[in-house]
């Protein structure tokens, strides 16, 4: 058996049109060609692929088993080419091909989803690469040009290479499981007492934050690189620690976690900054994303996320 040949994009699109339009005559009208040309194109495609795609024994041509399998491939190829052409038009018009974004793990997911959905609607041809990191890793990825834009909290270093814009804050609150010793206390919990119990602390492997602590009170602490793991350990009663309010709201309502009234302050405002390199001019899509974050973050965060 001979190897299948290489079909043309036009042949594939004629094949798709015949199926979608419901026959050769309808496809001919849709494509502004004669019916004989449509029929000839399909016959050539079948000859190229060495399979019969359509059963012509009925009034309306129907797909053979081979035709059903290859129609999906034809659609995929056609869509890929259409996407490539759309991206080429965008690039020719000065639109970047990709925007990379790194977001602090403390940042509310609901707010991030709202912004990214709007971005995809506005720039369907621009690939968006997203990373979620902790603490100094956000700044480090922007400094190293791995990501164009950062939405970060703590700025571990001051550097002229980074442009930053304060854009609100995330409410952090100390919590523990109801079974935890600190949750059993009434009234304000002295800082000296909180220090005696294991604190669960979020950390990262960034060199920028090496040796630095953020909101650490306890003498004994567990350093965790994953906020989800910290959340589960808190609910299991294995320690106490501060969490974004948006992430523990349901736990507080259901009683799975209890808010701790610490003498050192029971609410911490974790600052949110938009950052990018000052020596790297954002492209059109990246600037839109920066503007969207800058214009909407304070309002969204104030809504209690």
Characterization of this structure:
- The protein is an alpha/beta fold and 305 residues long.
- The chain is 42% helix and 20% strand.
- The chain contains ten helices and eleven strands.
- Strands 3, 4, 5, 6, 9, 10 and 11 form a seven-stranded mixed sheet that branches. The chain has a two-stranded antiparallel sheet with strand order 1-2. A two-stranded parallel ribbon has the order 7-8.
- Strand 1 and strand 2 form a beta hairpin.
- Helix 1 (9-21) crosses helix 3 and helix 1 packs across helix 4.
- The longest helix is centred in the first third of the chain and has 28 residues, at 65-92.
- It starts with 8 loop residues before the first helix and ends with a helix.
- The model has no long low-confidence stretch (mean pLDDT 81).
